[in-house]
Amino acid sequence: MMSLPAVLRSRPRRPEWLSPRILRIEALAGLVVALALIPEAVSFSIIAGVDPRIGLFASFTMAVTIAVTGGRPAMISAATGAIALVLAPLAREHGVEYLVAAVVLGGLLQALLGAVGVARLMRFLPRSVMVGFVNALAILIFTAQLPYLADVPWSVYALLAAGLVIMVVLPRLTTAIPAPLVAIVVLTAFTVAAGVTVPTVGDQGELPSSLPVLGIPSVPLTVETLTIIAPFSIAMALVGLMESLMTAKLVDGITDTHSNKTRESWGQGVANIVTGFFGGMGGCAMIGQTMINVKSGARTRLSTFLAGVFLLILVVALGPVVALIPMAALVGVMIMVAVGTFDWHSIRLTTLRKMPKSETTVMVATVAVTVFTHNLAIGVVVGVLVALVLFAHRVAHLVSVDSVLDPDGSTKIYRVTGQLFFASSNDLVFQFDYAGDPANVVIDLSEAHIWDASTVASLDAITKKYEERGTTLTITGMNESSEQRHAALAGSLGADH
To answer: Any idea where the STAS domain is (predicted)?
Structure first.
């Protein structure tokens, strides 16, 4: 009897996520995330000034789509506060249909930016900005829970304390079931059985009773419409990409895995396009829910996909049950996420003593601006700008100019050491003794590098000052890159210092 070829005898390898253990972890993590998404989506809908169902549908379509198109497994994308804040004025002034049209256009812009490689800019984010982003995020997650703890019965605080105890103690006993899920189930069962009256998910807004419907935004296809929605779409695209890529980088560090940032960029765009055509309010990566997912043990796309599916099932099919969940339980989950997200090591006295003051300044600036504006994108931009200014200031002071006079007194040699760019070369023109130097001067740049036109302009100014005094100036020692830049720009920059 002839044996089958080895390729036919071997069974196809089963995907890793189909193993019972991983499937259970991914499914339970997705369920916890879905429960946490409900009040967030409702709250963000209120911020945007739209029906809560629009935020819930957006969270469903974003999660399901990004599970397929995204580049960072286990990351959760849904309706977010940042996007809600960006689009709120548009919804208020022109209506929901214009908001939906802006979401579609914003998604197209994100896909385009992703295709041209905007994700590569992530490499220029300093670590201090990343730490500030994480800490600011934790603070915002925590402060976002405070309204749910104001003007509430004392029983809310008792439930919150009980939930926190469960989530702290249970992981030390077993990790078979995510502690946040246990806390939600136990507290809900207790409030229903004991008849305790506390704020619930149902109090946050009406839950949908039907599926989202595919459609085209009802707006005039005119240039005027484009001028109305374009500014909001551009802002949404940039804010959404920045938050998503920062979150992806954070998850990379937590899971010790690498993700495709370019795919994540255009995947976010595709998810927003789909969301817009289903009438959603758009969104991006959600750091809080992503942390819940990752801390629950999820590592694959399955948890993201199931979070979206569970969300739809919960709000459409099990809406009356979900409405009974006490907000105290979900607030407790988010508080634990905030505590786990904050980089406590970054504020220890031992760390602060060792850390350069410039690094600490960048971190504090990022945190302060983010918390003040409630916008992570603005905080990151300011943090990067502060880091650039401090870096330029630090490097500028690393340039030195030393001189030596030939024994016969006919030639003076200046040796310039350091990186020459706009910040360090502006004062270069004042480092030479034009009136007292001999007939021949040599500037040796073998230990320096010319980075920009500002430096070439400064060298032109130095050359002009020596020529006015009849001094012969020779510039030597330039490396290939510096020589090419100098040759291309010298004499054409209008130096008149």
So the answer is: 413-497
